[in-house]
Design a protein that fits this description.
Length: 194
């Protein structure tokens, strides 16, 4: 398992989440290491524009786009998997269709921060052993509205994609590394089931 070094703040907490599961995970930006990994994790905290610049500066965009092994994007990492983000009006990785937009104003404060229910729409291996409507921890102001790649939703005034999946690419808007036993189970499922 390689955690792609995106330079974001949650790298260590993601690695510690795997350590707690006794799953060997290494943080790397080395292209050869990333290409040879059995699984990849794309973490992200911050803005889409800054994250894409870091990926470009580290020559990682093409490597990520050409990955054939299972990859899990977390929070901004999931958003980067789509085609475009209105956060900075930046093209993203285009690993699946869809775009990321500011959560529509429904009178609720932004960012959406805290625990929220997740309802998975399909019997997906990423959610094996996790009860329907389980709570996960979110911190975000931008989201991907439900589309053909949505495998789970949550609601913050409007429904949004809590998880996406397309081919070997998966993403979660919430932070599994901060979501207790449900998050730990999801990370374990990613490693063991995908």
């Amino acid at each position: 398992m390689i955690i792609i070094d995106t330079g974001c703040a949650n790298l260590s907490s993601v690695k510690f989440a795997f350590d707690r599961l006794n799953i060997k995970a290494e943080i790397s930006r080395d292209i050869a290491t990333i290409k040879s990994a059995d699984k990849l994790l794309l973490p992200g905290v911050g803005t889409a524009m800054a994250a894409m610049k870091i990926l470009q500066d580290r020559n990682l965009i093409e490597t990520i786009q050409n990955a054939t092994q299972p990859m899990l994007g977390i929070c901004l990492g999931m958003q980067l998997m789509t085609e475009y983000s209105s956060e900075g009006n930046v093209p993203t990785l285009s690993l699946m269709s869809g775009h990321t937009d500011l959560i529509p104003n429904t009178g609720l404060p932004l960012p959406h921060m805290g625990w929220n229910k997740v309802r998975y729409e399909q019997d997906h291996p990423l959610f094996a052993g996790i009860e329907q409507d389980s709570h996960f921890y979110f911190v975000h102001s931008y989201a991907v509205l439900p589309n053909e790649h949505t495998i789970a939703t949550s609601d913050y005034g409007v429904p949004f994609s809590a998880a996406l999946g397309c081919k070997n690419f998966y993403g979660v808007q919430f932070h599994p590394e901060r979501s207790g036993k449900n998050g730990a189970q999801l990370l374990k499922n990613f490693v063991e089931n995908l």
